[in-house]
User: What shape does this take?
Amino acid sequence: MRGEGDGAVVDLAERRLIARLRRGEPGALAELWGRWGPAAWSVCAAMAGGPGDEAAKRLLLRVYEALPREAAGWTPDRPLSCRIAGLVYRVVVDGLELRVRTGIEAAVPTRFAAPAVPEIAGRIAALEPYLRLVYLLDVFFDCPAAALAELAGVAEPDIRAARAAAAWALVARAE
Assistant: This one.
């Protein structure tokens, strides 16, 4: 499903679920939340300070409460993962009052190495909050940059640059 640009594919099962969501079927919302709620929670918790943090719980509640309204207008032109990622993006940016970054320079480090597994969580946590959000959405939702940008209301080059900057920051080795 990772085809950048307009080629995001929505399979038949997702098309059917979107149709059920648009009709307001309660079971459809439960199915959607069962599938994507854990990923939404992972991003909210990572952005707000951890699973026990009240801010994380408030963010997740805002995502959950917005789902029925949002889902009623969804069409099958974008995968559900991208729809949820766009919603989580907007809620987290608004709820944590993140500064949306534009014109990000993704400088290639002169020295880099794959970090050891125990280091990865620390490096992700150390990322500037906006870069961390874009990185986590990429990891948990696997949404093409064009689709995420459209659904989040930001420019595609800015999403691509944030992804690149986050990736390089994760593999950069101190000089």
Remarks:
- The chain has eight helices and no strands.
- Confidence is low (pLDDT under 50) at residues 1-5.
- The radius of gyration is 17 Å.
